[in-house]
């Protein structure tokens, strides 16, 4: 069975949304940060058991507040990946509010939270920080090393065809 | 005509309209921005259209998508896209406005802003991490020092007691060796504590009056045994103009002398070590206390000498065996607003010059010199020792056993202390700080804030391995402290000091 699903990566600017997509789609990485203005859209087909699913991935410009996003960007979204930067407190300090917003306004979608740039911080230290902030984190990732990148998109795809 | 021309130049050329059927196939296109053909399925142009195709059945709806980055038939651009889902009379259509230039311009501005915000946040994070690492390190140093000092205190204390029992020469010799090693460990722990205090910016200078002559006598006694074993000449010279008493932190001044002289003795195997002390008058009440230590030892290479003279931050020199002492000395001197400089010796060796501004204190006589016998008051005193460690209690009891006028009771923690003092009068409490259930700090605070003035006036002396927290002790109403490991003399001086101060207060 072949189906296509729209997924959107959201989160603050500079958290590595574009890098995660680039790692997933092209298996490449660049240390240079290039800001995303508006939206870039790419697609990749993944195989889940006997099924094929085409993920149409919307890489939208970073915003510190979900409410500030243009609603048209989120039309028809099946899955969200909320990405934050494990090294920048400002990108996860309001994580629970942001998750709450998505779950309230897009109740039929799937959502995964990802702590990215985990290669830049001692993981055990960050786990303690996450406990202090009571962060709900589904995956720790690094677009630079590729850690968990494939897994995040594949797991989201699995959730979407359930 | 001009309006048509301008519309063509500024609007039409930057805009493309595509009309599609309800099946998603292109029925009409003006191809102003990119080439498409009638009949092409719109979803084949770009994945963007796949994600909006589900909007087609919902008639009479208009959606605007800003700044969408598309590449269609090899033409790249950023477009604001208006999508109309069609009506009964009108087919669905898409209008593309080319915003590439605007987006490129916007990108430059946003890039600059984001880069600077990220750089700032990263810098803040680094600073935060640095502070927390520093705190952790200082806490670790203070804790490890505490853990080392407590058993070391017991070792040195019992050694002192053992030394007063009948011993043969060989046994005395062995005890001396153990004591020397113990004292060496103690000085290393003290260096670690000093290091943590300096790093934390918590080094306090405690000003009191001291006699330079007493200080030099003390130093000579320390180094006489080394002189005998090394065949060295040691010449302390005190100039005539030295005021008999000066005001400074005498413990730290002694530490500076000892650290510098230790280095001189360590690196000089033959020849001499001279110590010159002089004072330069600044005004009627203050002088610059100058001293230099010159040795004929191995000396410092010029580059290393310059590096030590110029360093502003704490660091360890790479001179083998010089330890932390030199860095600590430089920092101590600077904390007293003084200066330290390392110069070459006369032929070889090293000359260290130190200058510290000090107040003069003529006529003030110290009551408690280290060499004096401690005239512990002969009146009957009730003393409560609070410590959870049986070994420490035995040690203190042993140290005080020569004073039959003292009645001693013990408690294992702060809770017991509070219970006992409410039942019985005490003249003094010797309080360990680290105790289970209620620590010494909390117990002292409860005593000082006790509604019964007989209890709240009981002086408390802290027995502590953590001398970095003196300010906390003062806030808790603690009158004095003895730092572990301590000798009998240290304990007696602390007790005597409390009673002398109390007597002075009563006279007032």
Notes on the protein architecture:
The complex is a heterodimer of chains A (162) and B (508). Chain A is of the alpha/beta class and 162 residues long. Chain A has 4 helices and 6 strands; from the N terminus they run E-H-E-E-E-H-E-H-E-H. Chain A has a single domain (2-161), classed as P-loop containing nucleotide triphosphate hydrolases (Rossmann fold, 3-Layer(aba) Sandwich). In chain A, a hairpin with a 2-residue loop joins strand 2 and strand 3 (51-60). Chain A starts with a strand and ends with a helix. The mean pLDDT of chain A is 93. Chain B has helices at 2-10, 47-50, 100-163, 169-200, 212-230, 250-267, 302-310, 325-335, 390-399, 414-423, 440-448, 453-456, 470-475, 488-507; strands at 15-20, 26-29, 62-72, 75-84, 93-98, 208-211, 232-238, 245-248, 271-283, 286-295, 339-344, 350-360, 381-386, 406-411, 428-432, 460-464, 480-483. Chain B is elongated. The N and C termini of chain B lie far apart (108 Å).
Short descriptors:
heterodimer, A: 162 residues, alpha/beta, Rossmann fold, six-stranded mixed sheet, 4 helices, 6 strands, 27% helix, globular, B: 508 residues, Beta-Lactamase, Helix Hairpins, Heat Shock Protein 90, 4 domains, seven-stranded mixed sheet, five-stranded antiparallel sheet, 14 helices, 17 strands
* Helix proportion range of chain A: 25-40%
CATH architecture of chain A: 3-Layer(aba) Sandwich
Helix and strand composition category of chain B = alpha/beta
CATH class of the largest domain in chain B: Alpha Beta
C-alpha termini separation of chain B: 108 Å
Mean pLDDT of chain A: 93
CATH fold label of chain A: Rossmann fold
N to C succession of SSEs of chain A: EHEEEHEHEH
Count of extended strands of chain A = 6
Characterize the largest beta sheet of chain B: strand count, sense, and whether it forms a barrel. Answer: 7 strands, mixed
């Amino acid at each position: 069975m072949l189906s296509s699903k729209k997924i959107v990566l959201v989160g603050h600017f500079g958290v590595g949304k574009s890098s995660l997509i680039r790692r997933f789609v092209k298996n490449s990485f660049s240390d240079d940060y290039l800001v995303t203005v508006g939206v870039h859209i790419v697609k990749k087909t993944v195989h889940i058991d006997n099924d094929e699913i085409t993920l149409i991935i919307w890489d939208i410009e970073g915003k510190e507040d979900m409410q500030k996003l243009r609603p048209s960007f989120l039309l028809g979204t099946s899955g969200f990946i909320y990405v934050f930067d494990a090294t920048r407190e400002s990108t996860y300090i309001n994580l629970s509010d942001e998750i709450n917003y998505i779950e309230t306004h897009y109740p039929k979608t799937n959502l995964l939270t990802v702590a990215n740039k985990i290669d830049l911080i001692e993981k055990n230290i960050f786990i303690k920080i996450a406990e202090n902030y009571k962060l709900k984190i589904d995956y720790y990732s690094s677009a630079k090393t590729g850690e968990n990148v494939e897994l995040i998109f594949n797991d989201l795809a699995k959730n979407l065809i359930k | 005509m001009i309006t048509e021309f301008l519309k063509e130049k500024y609007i039409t050329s930057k805009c493309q309209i595509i009309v599609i059927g309800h099946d998603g196939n292109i029925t009409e296109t003006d191809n102003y921005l990119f080439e498409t053909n009638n009949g092409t399925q719109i979803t084949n142009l770009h994945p963007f259209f796949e994600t909006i195709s589900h909007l087609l059945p919902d008639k009479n709806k208009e959606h605007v998508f800003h700044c969408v980055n598309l590449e269609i038939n090899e033409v790249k651009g950023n477009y604001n896209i208006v999508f109309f889902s069609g009506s009964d009379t009108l087919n669905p259509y898409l209008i593309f406005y080319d915003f590439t230039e605007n987006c490129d311009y916007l990108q430059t501005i946003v890039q600059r802003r984001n880069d600077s915000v990220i750089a700032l946040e990263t810098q803040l994070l680094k600073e935060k991490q640095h502070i927390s690492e520093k705190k952790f390190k200082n806490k670790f140093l203070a804790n490890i020092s505490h853990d080392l000092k407590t058993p070391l205190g017991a070792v040195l204390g019992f050694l002192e007691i053992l030394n007063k029992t009948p011993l043969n020469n060989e046994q005395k010799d062995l005890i001396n060796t153990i004591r020397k090693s113990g004292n060496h460990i103690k000085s290393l722990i003290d260096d670690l504590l000093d290091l943590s205090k300096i790093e934390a910016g918590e080094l306090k200078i405690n000003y009191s009056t001291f006699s330079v002559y007493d200080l030099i006598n003390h130093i000579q006694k320390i180094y006489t045994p080394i002189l005998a074993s090394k065949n060295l000449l040691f010449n302390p010279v005190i100039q005539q103009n030295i005021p008999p008493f000066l005001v400074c932190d005498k413990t730290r001044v002694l530490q500076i002398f000892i650290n510098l002289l230790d280095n001189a003795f360590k690196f000089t195997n033959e020849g001499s070590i001279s110590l010159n002390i002089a004072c330069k008058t600044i005004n009627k009440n203050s002088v610059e206390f100058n001293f230099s230590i010159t040795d004929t030892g191995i000396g410092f290479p010029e580059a290393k000498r310059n590096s030590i003279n110029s360093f502003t931050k704490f660091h360890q020199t790479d001179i083998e065996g010089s330890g932390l002492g030199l860095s600590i000395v430089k920092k101590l001197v600077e904390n007293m607003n003084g200066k330290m400089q390392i110069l070459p010796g006369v032929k070889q060796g090293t000359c260290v010059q130190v200058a510290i501004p000090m107040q003069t204190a003529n006529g003030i006589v110290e009551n408690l010199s280290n060499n004096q016998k401690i005239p512990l008051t002969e009146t009957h005193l009730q003393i409560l020792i609070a410590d959870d460690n049986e070994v420490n209690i035995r040690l203190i009891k042993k140290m005080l056993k020569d004073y039959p006028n003292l009645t001693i009771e013990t408690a294992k923690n702060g809770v017991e202390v509070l219970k006992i003092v409410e039942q019985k009068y005490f003249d003094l409490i010797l309080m360990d700080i680290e105790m289970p259930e209620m620590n010494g700090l909390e117990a002292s605070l409860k005593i000082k804030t006790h509604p019964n003035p007989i209890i709240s006036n009981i002086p408390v002396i802290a027995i502590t391995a953590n001398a970095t927290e003196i300010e906390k002790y003062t806030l808790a109403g603690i009158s004095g402290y003895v730092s572990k490991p301590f000798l009998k003399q240290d304990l007696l001086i602390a007790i005597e000091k409390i009673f002398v101060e109390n007597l002075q207060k009563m006279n007032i």
